Amino acid sequence: MTRTDEKVRYLPKSKDLYPTPSAGAAGVENVLRILEGRWKLVILFHLFGGQVKRFSELERDIPAISQKMLIQQLRQMETDGIVRRIVHHQVPPKVEYCLTDWGQALCPALDALLTWAAARPGEADTIA
């Protein structure tokens, strides 16, 4: 049996990711910056579940969005690392979009937001 003169110590794990309200507010601002835009969440819901969709499919799935706006939103999400753009070099060009692993990890958080929104009290309940 061997002995060591030094005890091995581990650093305590941090309890809070955001220990102060200002740190939490800064985190929320970063998240909102990434998800801001009228169409980003709609696009995300169409890509959840590992779906790979062509640009034209997304256009058909979201008929109210203009082509220009769809391009802008997809480019921003690609820059932020949420969406992956796959270009197939052929004639005519084929471009597909899917979520990155990080983008797919957003699914449970958005599901929780939908559950929260569905539990909103009715207008009659809020009037005292």
TrEMBL record:
Q: Which PROSITE patterns match?
A: HTH_HXLR
Q: Which residues form the HTH hxlR-type domain?
A: 20-125
In alphabetical order, the GO MF annotations are: DNA binding
Top-level taxonomic group:
Bacteria
What InterPro entries does the record point to?
HTH_HxlR (IPR002577), WH-like_DNA-bd_sf (IPR036388), WH_DNA-bd_sf (IPR036390)
Task: Tell me yes or no: is Membrane among this UniProt entry's keywords.
Answer: no
Print the keywords alphabetically.
DNA-binding, Transcription, Transcription regulation
Which PANTHER family is this protein grouped with?
TRANSCRIPTIONAL REGULATOR, TRANSCRIPTIONAL REGULATOR, MARR FAMILY
The entry's protein name is: DNA-binding HxlR family transcriptional regulator
